[in-house]
# Entry
Amino acid sequence: QKEVEQDPGPLSVPEGAIVSLNCTYSNSAFQYFMWYRQYSRKGPELLMYTYSSGNKEDGRFTAQVDKSSKYISLFIRDSQPSDSATYLCAMSGNAGGTSYGKLTFGQGTILTVHP
Amino acid sequence: DTGVSQDPRHKITKRGQNVTFRCDPISEHNRLYWYRQTLGQGPEFLTYFQNEAQLEKSRLLSDRFSAERPKGSFSTLEIQRTEQGDSAMYLCASSTQGVGELFFGEGSRLTVL
# Structure
């Protein structure tokens, strides 16, 4: 079993829909949780970053972390065709040490938002 | 452009040949990471440098792989005696010390025939 599980989709939604993406994990040492967006043939770019449990909102994006359930989510409101990409969840351990940048990624969910 | 730069973007080679990839991080970043991504999978950590010191290597990094960051600036990743299983996207990322986001380059895609 992988440390981080993510449904690869693909997920297809109409423009304007609310999109829900999620990951589960097994390593209780993870404290930092990120969502990256990756367009085809490009490197991942950071969308959201959250420390420990809680919610974080940035524009149309909301990230939620529930450490007790080892479950994280990303919500996209008013989705746009330009949101079509692969969304990767990523996690890491303690800050300040070498393990912070050692990210463990999910498989990625392919999202298509059609007009 | 002040982002992470990787070269070449795509390399096609025959099995058994050696290949080298270069990464130029964002100039003020002292941490540099290499990841490998295969089709349909998320990136997997390979190795990490803080300045010129290689501080951690994954078990994925077999003895055919070697990475260097000689002056704490650019880094190279060399794969010797390439195998078809080495075909992947090799991603470089950089960050500042402490808590900070990783900035990824666009990757170097390796195809081993």
User: Anything to note?
Assistant: DSSP finds no helices and eleven strands in chain A. The interface with chain B takes residues 4, 6, 8, 32, 34, 36, 41-46, 49, 88, 90, 95-96, 98, 100-108 of chain A (CB under 8 Å).
